[in-house]
Amino acid sequence: MQHVAMVGYGAIGSHLMRMFAADARVRLDQVIVGATGLKKAQAALGDGVAIVTRLEDLPRRPDVLIECASHRALTEHVVPALASGIDSIILSIGALANDGMAELLAEAANAGSSRLKLVSGAIGAIDALAAAQLGGLDEVVYVGSKPPSSWRGSPGESVVCLDSLAEATTLFKGSARDAARLYPKNANVAAALALAGLGLDATQVRLVADPSLSHNVHSYTAQGRFGRMSFTIEGMALPDNPKTSALTACSLARALINRVEPMGF
Ligand SMILES: NC(=O)C1=CN([C@@H]2O[C@H](COP(=O)(O)OP(=O)(O)OC[C@H]3O[C@@H](n4cnc5c(N)ncnc54)[C@H](O)[C@@H]3O)[C@@H](O)[C@H]2O)C=CC1
Ligand SMILES: O=C([O-])CC(=O)C(=O)O
Prior knowledge:
Specifically catalyzes the NAD or NADP-dependent dehydrogenation of L-aspartate to iminoaspartate. By secondary structure, the chain is an alpha/beta fold. It has helices at 11-19, 38-44, 72-83, 101-112, 126-135, 176-182, 188-196, 246-260, and strands at 2-7, 26-32, 50-52, 64-67, 87-90, 116-118, 139-146, 169-175, 204-209, 216-224, 227-235, 237-238, 241-245.
């Protein structure tokens, strides 16, 4: 059994709470929320969960910290956790597209002798892509397609009218770095693929709003000396957030379970 502190209590956080409610391997007993989320978290979670707004206010040292909050949460909570020796697992991978962020995380992990794990989130076959990177990788092209409602609150709103979209429309075409910076809640997958493969500047990304979809479709192709691969997933969204695929929460859950099981994927 491990004691876990979770940063963020939104669609993914509440899903994880339900997943691990009766699981002896993982005790999600501390949550870090933003000041505005305090009341909602207190109302939803019982006395068994400590809810704070700052890492230093956690009543006990967690075995591991997980992040399912936002790009900002990495600087606010993950960097200090790593620096104080707490292993961390993150989902907001797009934050690594910001200048100096990867270096900041690595320095903190080195200073605290801790480890930072990036999980695959809503995408798959990252292990194959990372292996291909060692075997000669020339091109990675990723397309992320979601229903129009999943792009609300993003710069896509100024590209098209999401309410009256009649056909699939490209909202963004460019590098994974620009995608991750411009679409922090929709392009973490693009950043994850880039970091596993060809890097943030060489990985090609297209983001699409498609009114014919009822789920999120992530698709990529990769080729090089290693050979050729393609991967597509049609991910059901979490009920509380149409932007987020349910598999994202499962990927974080798998990473936690793997820490305590004697073997596994
Ligand atoms: N790697 C991947 O495949 C994916 C990564 N994500 C990442 O996970 C994040 C969370 O996703 P959802 O749960 O669907 O979002 P959500 O919006 O439903 O919940 C996020 C919660 O975190 C809180 N929060 C934000 N910044 C915070 C901070 N600095 N400190 C404490 N709490 C903070 C928000 O107030 C909110 O309650 C996304 O913003 C995105 O960065 C999401 C989907 C896929
Ligand atoms: O959950 C998803 O479908 C992917 C996502 O939002 C992201 O890449 O940030």
